[in-house]
Write a structure and sequence with these properties.
two-stranded antiparallel ribbon; alpha+beta; 6 helices; Arc Repressor Mutant, subunit A
Length: 136
């Protein structure tokens, strides 16, 4: 919000003159709601004091179709201002966060392809055709 500031100064003739200038103060709104801490959530931007990342908010909103109010109702520890700050941060850093989302999805796909659970193995064995020859 611009703030008018009155300044007094001496002119070339030595007489005092006054002048009004406008200075802009910037409130650190985003930094009140979004923080980045190395070693916490992989160093990704997140809602201050929580482990909910800006990436989570963006996915819930864009892919899940949740409104900011719905996100807050599902996560009552965060505020509507937190969600809007996360969405603002996301839109200011969209390419970077979308690249993180893509990298995370690729990592998950590689992990799924390289491992299987004991339950999955048992189900595969049950579904496998029986190639044994019956006695007789």
């Amino acid at each position: 919000m611009p703030v008018a500031v009155a300044e007094a100064s001496a002119g070339y003739d030595g007489k005092m003159t006054s002048q009004t200038t406008t200075e802009t103060r910037v409130a650190p709104v985003i930094s009140e709601h979004i923080e980045i801490t190395p070693g916490v959530c992989g160093g990704k931007p997140r809602i201050a004091g929580h482990r909910i990342t800006v990436q989570n908010i963006a996915i819930w909103h864009e892919r899940g179709g949740l409104s900011p109010d719905e996100i807050v109702s599902r996560h009552p520890g965060i505020t509507l201002a937190d969600v809007y700050a996360a969405l603002t941060y996301y839109h200011d850093h969209r390419d970077e966060i979308r690249a993180q989302i893509q990298a995370d999805e690729e990592f998950a796909d590689r992990l799924k392809a390289s491992s299987s659970s004991p339950l999955q193995e048992k189900l595969r064995r049950q579904d496998a055709p029986d190639d044994s020859v019956p006695p007789g």
